[in-house]
Amino acid sequence: MLTQAPKGTQDLLPQASYRWQRIEQSMRDVCALAGYREIRTPIFEHTELFQRGVGDATDVVQKEMYTFNDKGNRSITLKPEGTAGAVRAFIEAHMFADTLPCKLYYVSSPCFRYEKPQAGRLRQFHQNGIEVFGAKDASVDAEIISRALKVLSANGIDGLRLTVNSIGCPTCRKAYLEKLRDYLRPKLPDLCKTCQERFERNPMRILDCKEDAGKLADAPAMLDNLCEDCAGHFEKLQGYLRAMDIHYEIDPRIVRGLDYYTKTVFEIITDTPDGTPLTVCGGGRYDGMVEELGGPATPGIGWGMGVERMLMVQDMRGTAAEAPAPLDALVVTMGDEARLEGVKLVDALRDRGVKADLDHAARSMKAQFKYANKLGARKVVVIAGDELEKGVVKLRDMEKSSEEEVSKSEIVELLAKGL
Ligand code: ATP
Ligand code: MG
Questions:
Q1: Which residue out of 61, 255, 309, 314 has the highest number of ligand 1 atoms within 8 Å of its CB and is therefore the one to mutate?
Q2: Residue 131: closest CA among 105, 109, 150, 112
Q3: What percent of the chain has pLDDT over 90?
Q4: pLDDT tens digit string along 266-281?
Q5: Which residues contact 253 (CB under 8 A, 6 or more apart)?
């Protein structure tokens, strides 16, 4: 128990952390190129924020949240996703009064959901995400989709399926939901319990049910019932995607889990070896959410991308980057005086951007070389008796197995340039 992490959580160990750092860096680069700035919101929020912002008819809120009372008896929830906190911060910091659109991103943000742990499903996982406030044109829908695809391709994850849909707006959805209920009503007794519960509050989610989807193939689709504004928006989005050469499929079945999604919804999916699709990124427009949470009516759109799922796809495809060597150069020393020189040299090398170290475990000379090999250091600098007196060091190239004498005053410059 003491030496076992809680179910559904993972340590990020040093041999894998470089992969996260690369993903994080690419996310920062790809977002910065389009004028996005980073936001970090707290790991917990008032429970009500998620009930309102994610929607209390969703699986996330009904079954998956980590909710507890703190010592002041407030109901607190560990964030299950990134959008609600970003919307809250946008309102609280009056960002709506700044120049819009407000383009935000977050990196490896921890999310918590009480789910049954399995491949691609953790209880603490991490999301990269984008949220844009105050942009209603479909050009921004296309922009965030393109950013998501760039982050993926920058990490060796190309050619995933992009599926898009429109789930309309409150105006056209109202009439559609009536149509949908009329269609579903006679079928209700055959549907699962969750679907029966969703019939009144959130009938669109019934179409998303893994158990019942097969029975509902001929259900009316929101896409065929859009108002002029929503249909126009969806057309424009497709035009922008085509203009950027982004391939997409229309999937009238994507409804997404969140209540305040309007118009565009999309997913980026990959197929796993066992045939089950894995959603790496999901997002959409939420034009109603800022107002719902107490801010001025402001359109919003965003996506969340599971970092662990990106790593899974990299593993499936063998496209993970190789681990960088932790060191460029190891300084090998023999004797106290040499060691003093070694400490000085290592410090100087580090100042010049050379990843350098020396042995800290009192290894023998031979063992220090072994150590250099283990660490993958390309260069070894030897400081020992003879050389010390001559004011030189020995520079060994570990790849070429060649050795040269270099004057003590030149070694730093040589290594700094040569690497
Ligand atoms: P799913 O259908 O797989 O349950 P979701 O619709 O619940 O996904 P979102 O709420 O859209 O997922 O979250 C965005 C992304 O976060 C997902 O596309 C996925 O990559 C990741 N994600 C969601 N839940 C988990 C989890 N329990 N473990 C790991 N990653 C997750
Ligand atoms: Mg889920």
A1: 309
A2: 105
A3: 84
A4: 999 998 888 889 999 9
A5: 165, 207, 208, 213, 221
Q: How far is the CA of 109 from the centre of ligand 2 (A)?
A: 16
Q: How much is the pTM?
A: 0.93
Radius of gyration, CA atoms only, the chain: 28
Ligand 1 pocket: which of 279, 303, 307 to mutate (most atoms <8 Å of CB)? 279
- Could you give the CA distance from residue 53 to residue 159 in angstroms, rounded to a whole number? 32
Give the model's pLDDT for residue 212.
84
Task: Name the residue at shortest CA distance from atom 23 of ligand 1.
Answer: 306
pLDDT at 59: 85
Q: Is 284 in the pocket of ligand 1 (CB under 6 A)?
A: no
**Domain annotation covers residue 222:** no
Position 251 in a domain: yes
Q: Is residue 267 in contact with ligand 1, taking CB distance under 6 Å? A: no
Which ligand 1 atom sits closest to the C-alpha of 80? 10
Atom 28, ligand 1: residue with shortest CA distance: 121
The two beta strands, 67-69 and 161-166, are unpaired
Testing ligand 1's pocket by substitution, the residue of 125, 152, 255, 268 carrying the most ligand atoms inside 8 A of its CB is 125
The lowest-confidence range among 51-65, 125-139, 155-169, 320-334 is 51-65
Q: Is the dihedral of CA 395, 397, 401, 404 positive or negative?
A: negative
Q: Mean pLDDT of all residues in the chain?
A: 94
- The identity of residue 7, as a single letter, is K
Q: How far apart are CA 242 and CA 195, in angstroms?
A: 36
Separation of CA 257 and ligand 2 centre (Å): 8
In a domain, 211, yes or no: no
Please provide the DSSP assignment of 128-148 as one string. Answer: EEEEEES--SHHHHHHHHHHH
Domains held by the chain: number: 2
For ligand 1, atom 11: residue with the closest CA? 282
55 Cβ closer than 6 Å to some ligand 1 atom: no
Mean pLDDT of 280-309: 97
- With a 6 A CB cut-off, is 53 part of the ligand 1 pocket? no
Residues 339 and 280 in one domain: no
Question: Which range of residues forms the domain containing residue 380?
Answer: 329-418
Q: Is it the case that residue 257 has pLDDT exceeding 60?
A: no
| Integer angstrom CA distances of residue 337 from 350, 360, 386, 391 | 20, 15, 12, 13
